[in-house]
């Protein structure tokens, strides 16, 4: 009986230990602080300790306020970035790529507001129809002046940030998919050739060539469209900038390793190497991964680990989590903090994040990160995002 009792106690203790990449400590943490064999409870920030691979003591401490080591960035890769989407110029773009509006300019003061807190990357979405009112046509100078005003405000916000120029059209123009019944690759590439020519001398610009392609009939054809844009950007003289390569299924981080990823890894860079080609992934934390609910049901750590494994197995490539987010609810404070802490701890593979969203959204939007009128931040920002900024 005694042997059985000891065995049961041992099993109970083992079951209580936290799995690799699970939370094991941090401010207000009340769960177990020990990790399974082969993992170390490591302080990622004051709010979040995580079981990371290692063999040191498995008991959490409370003296460290950051990671014990910084992941090694691949040669030529993107250093760790953390920031926010600044929505507005994408307003009224539908998921079929149609558009009927004028866009809204993100409040300029938000760039410095976030930069002062450590943000070093902004993502600024725009509608294709605003940039080139005719598919394959020339850039509209009036809109470009507006858009570039926001880009320059971001670049000059004080943190020397990176700025993602995000084409927010779901691989479509007015309901038709690029090169699959809709615009030709040449028409798609024409937009990026013109934009790249305007920013070719600024290496802090990142080209986000398409937001959330979805329901794409032929992945190989889409990958060819991506290659055409990469070639056009480099031919325009923009050879130092990173380019974000989106997959399919709404740029799903979960689908990427088995769906578009195996083909996108074959896209080549005329500028040489592949370190400037970063995979663009999204993943929300609500029940249906739509980013439309205020509550979070997952921290996505297992999904992100699978993505990391894929990236390492395919030449130590990098991805960027350019959309994720949650509501200003306690479930999201915990889950988003966990997800972003994992990204930070694995930034050699997932280079960083831009959370959705601030900018022209008001403070009643479900996933709002827009500061309040008195300058205070949303609880999700202070509880989950800010602790994981660079």
Architecture overview:
Residues 1-16 form the signal peptide. GO terms for molecular function: cellulase activity; cellulose binding. Belongs to the glycosyl hydrolase 5 (cellulase A) family. Keywords: Carbohydrate metabolism, Cellulose degradation, Glycosidase, Hydrolase, Polysaccharide degradation, Signal. The chain has ten helices and 13 strands. The protein starts with a helix and ends in a 5-residue tail after the last helix. The model is unreliable at 1-15 and 55-68 (pLDDT under 50). The protein has helices spanning 2-16, 109-115, 128-131, 141-155, 185-199, 219-235, 261-264, 301-313, 330-345, 379-385; strands at residues 23-25, 39-45, 48-53, 81-87, 121-126, 162-167, 172-173, 176-177, 205-208, 242-246, 277-282, 319-323, 350-359. Strand 9, helix 6 and strand 10 (242-246) form a beta-alpha-beta unit. An eight-stranded parallel beta barrel has the order 4-5-6-9-10-11-12-13, surrounded by five helices. Strands 1-3-2 form a three-stranded antiparallel sheet. The longest helix has 17 residues, at 219-235. With 390 residues, the protein is α/β, with parallel strands linked by helices. The protein folds into two domains: 2-53, no CATH class; 81-388, TIM Barrel.
